Amino acid sequence: MRIGISSHGTDKVSRMTEMVRRSFAEMGHEAAIVSDSPYGLSAYDFLVFITEPKSMFGGIASSLPQTLAKSEGLIGKRCLALVRKSGFRSGNTLRKFMEALEHEGLVVVQGEIVSDASSAAAVARGTPLNRR
Fold first, then answer.
1. Rounded to whole angstroms, how far apart are CA atoms 28 and 54?
2. pLDDT of 39-68, one tens digit each?
3. What is the CA radius of gyration of the chain?
4. What is the pTM for the complete model shown?
């Protein structure tokens, strides 16, 4: 399965992104970080989005929904939403993040708050990639 991973945030989020990519590759999937790939988001069978709260009180960066709106072919794609635990309202950030993804037509199969790269990799290994 082709899996595209998109991240928005600091170096800690970048480390999470690489661990999630390795986790899917170890499972035998073709996983790529979207910023390094010549393909758009629509070229992948499953998408993973990773971000962090924009401030100590939660919320998502305003550029994130704009970036999603520019992408084509997202309607009906299944995805995983991960938010790095930071500040007081990571749950609020996850809710807003999932709403932004669903607004663009993505089907969020799982949303999680993760504290570090190893927990992000563990969530990736347990993600339901196929419909059952």
1. 34
2. 788 889 999 999 998 887 778 887 888 888
3. 13
4. 0.90
d(CA 93, CA 99): 10
pLDDT digits (tens, 9 = 90+) for 74-91: 899 999 999 999 888 889
Say how many CA atoms lie within 13 Å of 126 toward its Cβ: 10
Residue indicated by tokens 């070229």: 43
Say which DSSP state 38 is in.
Answer: S
Helices and strands, counts by H and E, the chain: 4, 5
| 8 Å CB contact between 109 and 79 | yes
The β-bridge relationship of strands 2-8 and 46-51 is parallel
> Which residues are paired to 113 by β-bridges?
83
Q: Which amino acid is at 18?
A: E
Q: Which amino acid is at 120?
A: A
